[in-house]
Amino acid sequence: MSLPPIADILEFLKSADPEMLELMGEAAVLEAFRSAAAEVPAYTALLSQRGVDPAAVVDIDAFRRLVPLTDKTNTFIAHPIHQLCRGGSLKGIKSIVPSSGHSGTFAFSVDTAEGAELAAKGADLAFEYVLGISERPTLVVNCYPMGLQVPTSMAVANAGVNADVAIAIVKSFARYFDQLIIVSQPLFVKKLLEDGLEQGVDWKRLRATVVAGGEGFVESWRTYISGLLGIEDPDNPTIQFVASSMGAGELGLNLFHEVPETIRIIRRAYRDPALRQALFGDGASHTPHFFVYYPMRSFIEEIPAAGWPGGDLAVSHTAMDLPLPLFRYRTGDLVRLIPYRRLEEILARSAPDLPMPGLRLPCAAVFGRRDGLEVAAGRVSVEAVTRADMRSLRHGRGILDGASGGARGGLEQRRVAS
């Protein structure tokens, strides 16, 4: 399978009917499901055990009603990898990506050479819309843990989680490119930028953008990092961004991402309780990440969760030729889905001066992991304890401890030497 040129895809997404895009995704996931039900041994067995006849899944309502939810336990723990692949074989596999393993269990995605090329084009699509990478030579400094690659056609320097290596790369190579993209987890981004300042890197003279993934961050962190990069107005970024991207090793590394318009919306919601309530409903304990996603590439569901205005995030692959397809796979995150037209209505009523996203894609508000700490007053999330004065910290990591039936929240931190 090949994709049209990125410029053509962007033009299509800027003018397409939003409901049509979602219908395309529904049709694609049904076709992918039927294919996997026939070709993936473990999935065939799961459907049989649950009494699901694939032929009965005739439309998207039947898909939601009949197809079982999956997760790490009934997928990666229950079956060897080869049984999760088409034809029960890993033949043709060229790449393996692990999950974070934060739950104590690892999951994996596997891909072919052609699939890896498509993934790179998908990532480049987002970067082209946000940063115009086809017109500006761009260097990506990948500071994810070694082994985790950034799928892109841009020049990539794989520094890993070594600030000295990343800083050496920036000092030696950034001058030869029009713009720089730093990709890493939020805590390491902060350390890297601060260490760089101490070693003479003037981030404000570089056209640098940060894309943070792997874990969430709060808006005070975005404000602080924007200041280090010389972004004067983090509420209205134009040529540089501090942005978030979300994926999962077993599902894909760029399922959701921010665009300039969603950053402006979430920054307003951060300060405006009325807009926050209109977007995310009652009971939202903190401002979530607010992403766009591609319904033709991933079918996203919000599974109702008691006591929560949204639900549990479930993801289904839509590609017919993916070696290890997953369906209705629960990630452990809480989400609220907002279709494009619904967002249009909310902004028209609550923030008419804010522009809609230029890509006519649905949005997802991701509130973080479902496994927050339950106390008498309700659920406490890690995100809720990471709001702090970031300027005086070298690094801060949110902690939740439910030992002995109590609750403790705080920040692990180290002060910057004065």
Core attributes:
418 residues, globular, 33% helix, 11-stranded mixed sheet, alpha+beta, Rossmann fold, disordered C terminus, single chain, two-stranded antiparallel ribbon
Summarize the structure.
By secondary structure, the protein is an alpha+beta fold. About 35% of the residues lie in helices and about 25% in strands.
Topology:
Elements lengths: L5 H10 L2 H22 L1 H9 L10 H7 L5 H6 L17 E4 L9 E4 L1 H19 L6 E5 L12 E4 L4 H11 L5 E6 L1 H13 L9 E5 L6 H11 L12 E7 L3 E6 L2 H12 L1 H8 L8 E5 L4 E7 L6 E7 L11 E10 L1 H11 L12 E7 L3 E3 L2 E3 L12 E9 L6 E8 L3
Parallel strand pairs: 3-4, 3-5, 5-6, 6-7
Antiparallel strand pairs: 1-2, 7-8, 8-9, 9-13, 10-11, 11-12, 12-13, 14-15, 16-17
Helix pairs in contact: 1-6, 2-3, 7-8, 8-9, 10-11, 11-12
Explained architecture:
The protein has helices spanning 6-15, 18-39, 41-49, 60-66, 72-77, 113-131, 163-173, 186-198, 219-229, 260-271, 273-280, 340-350; strands spanning 95-98, 108-111, 138-142, 155-158, 179-184, 208-212, 242-248, 252-257, 289-293, 298-304, 311-317, 329-338, 363-369, 373-375, 378-380, 393-401, 408-415. It is an alpha+beta fold and 418 residues long. It contains twelve helices and 17 strands. The N and C termini lie far apart (56 Å). It has a domain at 113-391: Rossmann fold (3-Layer(aba) Sandwich), CATH 3.40.50. Helix 1 packs across helix 6. Helices cover 33% and strands 24% of the residues. The strands form four sheets. An eleven-stranded mixed beta sheet has the order 4-3-5-6-7-8-9-13-12-11-10, with helices on both faces.
